[in-house]
Specification:
The complex is a heterodimer. By secondary structure, chain A is of the alpha/beta class. Chain A is built from 18 helices and 34 strands. Chain A is globular and about 90 Å long. By secondary structure, chain B is of the alpha/beta class. Helix content of chain B is about 40%, strand content about 15%. Chain B has helices at about 20-30, 50-60, 80-95, 115-130, 135-139, and strands spanning about 10-15, 35-40, 65-70, 105-110. Classes of the chains: A alpha/beta, B alpha/beta.
Chain lengths: ~675, ~140
């Protein structure tokens, strides 16, 4: 490389975002005197077409072979400017960006200081770019198969969208059936259409789709690889039922003598057997045997199911199976957990019998639920005459979750309507703020208002059974400050429903680590960009959809499921994907074969060549973190595009500018 | 007269995925902080070899910051575990060489922690300001 280095520097005004604080003309003038710089300009919007064309023109006309743009964060426009360089024939890795917006003009009040900082950052980039080397991107084909994790409504939607386009989907669900939380609901707001009627056809489509391999009662064990080429190990837990033989006739469930309280699907209100499908419309309708409760597994006798199964499908000796699949992209739709209402001790859930959670109330109102859709108190016979519904339990509460769970207002309004419709009871809703922002939501609120539900604005202090007056005897008393009239009130009711908020899955963190993505501070999975890239993650090839990303109602979850599928399909359509070119490389001359790098590589991307006694980087596995570089004592391993030389040049550029500016100021 | 004004010169090595984005988050929220820190982006805090820190001091940096993802949040799963082990050792070595160990600062800042980032920058800048310029120490 004897070619003369010619750097072009471009300082962006970003309208007034940068130019309002940084003297861009001064910075451009300063940059023109830096080593190797042949042209230095400032322009209103570098990312616009004329801005990019300016770079391309200079490359052609002046033979520029290195480009520095000082503008926003590289996370926003690095790809844009690399593209401009590429188009004009300059290798994209010969481009460098100085972040003078997010890390300068927006965070520095003093104009002189901001200009000085911009100069230092530009000089750092100019110093670095001279040492940058062209890199050739590696293109790898994308495996068109897709893994969808989670069989709730978001996962179902994503799986169907991908499968309908003709690509194969592996859908993994932890529970015995698809359906997720939506399968537990009776009515959905704001239209009050029956949840099962709109969900079960979709579940059925998944179950019968020629392009979908459905794996329920299964979990992802291990994920290896990278976009386009993931190898995923799935643990298919033993059902103790031979799936191909089982016809789903249900005789085993009928004959099983062991009744178990169903804490999952029926929220503890109903029973299931030790061999069970969670609900009659389950997909697949192959049951599972719950080992912990099965008499045969616990005591060695019974085998009633085996005796009566007409097809001989019961297999007590079945083992967990590990299935390895290859996929190109992954969509996570792992959903949410409900906040545990027991934690709010003053509301009495678990202590006062007639305090119910939202999921319990959903099951009570569900025609297929434990009471056949009749709303009874805990005794199973008494119909409540007054119902109190408490919003924001565990949400918007600094003691539990600060965030708004987004769905509880609408859910509570739905409960108010259903309670009134099914029992004729007097209903009180206790809310902090009424949040009904989506289409037709506020109309639903108006409808519930007209129906005569009482709305009391205030956070409930306590639910108690200690009566102070005869009228409160035998009732639950809701103590609340009605903030609209500025008075403490005690409302006696027969039944209390707690609208517990949504929270991240208990194992969200584990899942995030498994798939190489991140969680926010409160453990929701993080999207790539909160507005412009809501279903992608920082890990290419891994997408998120539905409530695993944050509280979401059904329409939003469905939209995200479809969006994630669209993103995956566009990648599959491209056929191949560019992978990280900035990988580590070993200098075999100086490598002493100490294996320190191998020990610290998070990806087992470094192998030891026993015949040569040297380390060797497997490029396709290397993600370019550079952890090995920090471990290598003889400095034999380096990370392309982040070499010591480049980073030191960047540091020196910044340091020398700071020193120079300081010296000239003193003088 | 007070002592002559002294603006510390600080180099910050920030991982691309958490801390650099945390700095961007601070920017997007327009949180003001002192301009003394010049940020150098590295893929992972695990990439920050001791040499990079030492070279910065040799160039005259008054302080060096190493910021990475929180433990468990590393984009490369365990890259920052190495940072967590290496940097404290490097601090000890600095002290051994007669350099105040507080000149090297290690912390974890996530992409969401713009506020924490700005606080960390303010505090570290003031810590360094309280120390003499590094060139004096070198003499």
């Amino acid at each position: 490389m004897s070619e003369e280095i010619k750097v072009g520097v471009y300082i962006c005004h970003c309208g007034s975002n940068i130019a309002g604080t940084v003297d861009v003309a001064d910075v451009a003038q300063w940059a023109s005197k830096l080593p190797n710089v042949v042209v230095s300009r400032d322009y209103k919007f570098m990312c616009s077409s004329p801005g990019q064309e300016m770079i391309e023109k200079d490359i052609h006309a002046m033979g520029i072979n290195r480009v520095v743009v000082a503008s926003c964060s590289p996370h926003l426009h690095e790809a844009t400017f690399r593209g401009a360089c590429s188009r004009a024939g300059v290798n994209p890795y010969l481009f460098e960006m100085a972040n003078i917006r997010e890390q300068d003009s927006w965070v520095t009040s003093d104009k002189t200081e901001a200009t000085k900082k911009a100069k230092a950052l530009v000089a750092a980039a100019v110093g670095r770019v001279a040492h940058q080397q062209p890199l050739e991107s590696l293109f790898v084909p994308i495996d068109p198969n897709v893994l969808v994790v989670g069989g709730g409504i978001a996962g179902i939607q994503a799986a169907l969208e991908v499968a309908d386009s003709g690509h194969h989907v592996f859908l993994v669900e932890r529970e015995p059936s698809l359906g997720g939380h939506m399968a537990q609901f009776d009515k959905t707001f704001p239209t009050l259409d029956c949840s099962a009627c709109i969900l079960t056809p979709k579940m059925f489509s998944v179950g019968n789709h020629k392009n979908i391999t459905m794996m329920t009662w299964s979990e992802v064990d291990k994920v290896e690889g990278y976009i386009g080429n993931f190898t995923v190990t799935i643990r298919k837990r033993a059902r103790y039922i031979d799936e191909p033989l089982c016809t789903g006739c249900g005789v085993c469930q009928e004959k099983c003598p062991k009744k178990v309280i169903d804490n999952v699907f029926e929220a503890g209100l109903g029973y299931r057997k030790a061999v069970y499908t969670p609900f009659p419309q389950a997909v697949p309708n192959t049951p599972v045997i719950d080992r912990e409760n099965c008499t045969y597994f616990q005591k060695g006798t019974c085998r009633a199911c085996e005796k009566f199964c007409p097809t001989g499908a019961i297999k007590f000796d079945q083992q967990d199976e590990l299935i390895t699949i290859k996929v190109g992209n992954i969509i996570l739709a792992t959903g949410y957990d409900l906040f545990d209402a027991r934690k709010v001790g003053q509301y009495g859930y678990g202590r006062l019998a007639n305090v119910f959670t939202n999921m319990e109330f959903e099951r009570l109102t569900n025609a297929a639920g434990p009471t056949g859709g009749k709303v009874f108190l805990r005794d199973g016979v008494t119909v409540p005459k007054t119902v109190g519904i408490i919003h924001c339990v565990g949400s918007r509460d600094t003691n539990y979750h600060n965030y708004c769970s987004a769905i509880c207002c609408m859910q509570s309004l739905k409960f108010a309507h259903l309670a009134m419709e099914k029992t004729g009871a007097e209903v009180y809703n206790f809310y902090i703020d009424m949040r009904t922002p989506a289409k037709s939501y506020d109309e639903f609120y108006q409808k519930v208002l007209r129906e005569g539900t009482h709305f009391i604005r205030g956070r409930v202090a306590e639910v108690t059974d200690c009566a102070r007056q005869p009228s409160e005897e035998g009732k639950l008393i809701i103590q609340v400050e009605d903030t609209l009239i500025g008075r403490q009130r005690r409302i006696p009711v027969d039944m209390v429903v707690l609208s517990a908020g949504l929270q991240p899955r208990a194992d969200a963190k584990e899942v995030a680590i498994k798939f190489g993505i991140s969680c926010s501070a409160d453990q929701w999975l993080i999207e790539k960009h909160p507005k412009l890239d809501p279903v992608a993650t920082m890990t290419d090839g891994v997408f998120i959809a539905g409530a695993c990303q944050g509280p979401k109602d059904i329409p939003s979850s469905v939209a995200q499921g479809a969006a994630a599928a669209a993103r995956v399909l566009s990648l599959i359509g491209q056929g191949e994907v560019e992978i990280e070119a900035a990988t580590a490389i070993v200098d075999e001359v100086t490598c002493v074969g100490c294996k320190q790098c191998i020990a610290c590589c998070p990806y087992t991307a470094i192998e030891y060549l026993a015949d040569k006694g040297k380390a060797h980087v497997i490029e396709a596995l290397c993600k370019g973190c550079g952890t090995c570089v920090g471990a290598c004592l003889p400095k034999s391993i380096s990370l392309k595009h982040f070499t010591d030389e480049q980073l030191v040049a960047e540091m020196i550029g910044a340091m020398q500018t700071m020193k120079y500016l300081e010296a000239t100021e003193v003088a | 007269m007070d002592a002559p004004a002294y603006e510390p010169k600080i180099i910050g090595f920030l991982c691309n995925w958490c801390s650099y984005r945390g700095a961007d988050t601070a920017g997007m929220a327009r949180m003001k902080y002192p301009p003394n820190v010049k940020i150098i982006r590295v893929p992972c805090s695990g990439r920050i070899s001791p040499e990079l820190v030492l070279r910065s001091f040799r160039e005259g940096a008054d302080g060096v910051m190493v910021l990475g993802c929180h433990i468990g949040d590393c984009h490369y799963s365990t890259g920052n575990h190495r940072t967590a082990k290496r940097m404290p050792i490097l601090k000890n070595l600095l002290e051994y060489a007669g350099i105040e160990p507080e000149r090297l600062y290690i912390n974890w800042v996530s992409a969401a922690e713009g506020e924490k980032f700005s606080v960390v920058i303010k505090e570290f800048t003031e810590t360094i300001r309280a120390l003499p310029p590094f060139v004096e120490v070198m003499k």
